[in-house]
């Protein structure tokens, strides 16, 4: 059950990072100087889901569950937790350093985290099961 929750939560995080990145890019195209409350809410929930997902992954690892994908499965742990957390923190720092358009750094961090968490899903599921998601 925890494995299934880990999968669905990971999928939701991938979608949330993509929404956050696209939202930030649309705001920038519209030249909005201040970020709307909805952007901050999506950011907040995405970061919290990522932390929850990382804790769930650590629990699965401690229970003896391992990644079933092929190839360098150790990358699943880095792509799924460490690298997205780093990109989110970097995006937040970038956002704090700007007075106007503060959401741009967070949008870039979310875009990078989206790519990394998608890759974590690909490594964790293996190529065949990942492609089955789109069939």
Structure description:
There is one protein chain. By secondary structure, this protein is mostly helical. The protein is built from 5 helices and no strands. It is elongated. The model has no long low-confidence stretch (mean pLDDT 82).
Topology:
Layout: H1 2-29, H2 37-62, H3 74-96, H4 103-125, H5 127-132
Overview in brief:
By secondary structure, the chain is an all-alpha fold. The protein is 79% helix and 0% strand. It has five helices and no strands.
Q: What's the shape?
A: elongated
Percentage of helical residues? Answer: over 70%
Largest sheet: none
What is the arithmetic mean of pLDDT?
A: 82
Please tell me how large the radius of gyration is: 16 Å
Terminal CA distance? 24 Å
> What string gives the helices and strands in order?
HHHHH
Low-confidence stretches: none
Number of DSSP helical runs:
5
Question: Which structural class matches the secondary elements?
Answer: mainly alpha
Number of β-strand runs:
0
Percentage beta strand: under 5%
Q: Keyphrases for this structure?
A:
135 residues, single chain, mainly alpha
């Amino acid at each position: 059950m925890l494995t299934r929750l880990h999968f669905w939560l990971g999928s939701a995080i991938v979608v949330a990072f993509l929404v956050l990145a696209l939202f930030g890019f649309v705001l920038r195209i519209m030249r909005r100087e201040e970020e709307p409350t909805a952007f901050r809410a999506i950011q907040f929930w995405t970061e919290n889901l990522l932390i929850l997902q990382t804790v769930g992954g650590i629990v699965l690892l401690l229970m003896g569950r391992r990644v079933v994908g092929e190839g360098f499965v150790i990358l699943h742990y880095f792509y799924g937790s460490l690298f997205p957390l780093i990109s989110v923190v970097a995006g937040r720092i970038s956002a704090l350093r700007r007075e106007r358009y503060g959401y741009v750094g967070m949008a870039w961090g979310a875009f990078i985290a989206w790519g990394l968490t998608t890759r974590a899903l690909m490594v964790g599921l293996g190529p065949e099961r990942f492609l089955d998601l789109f069939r």
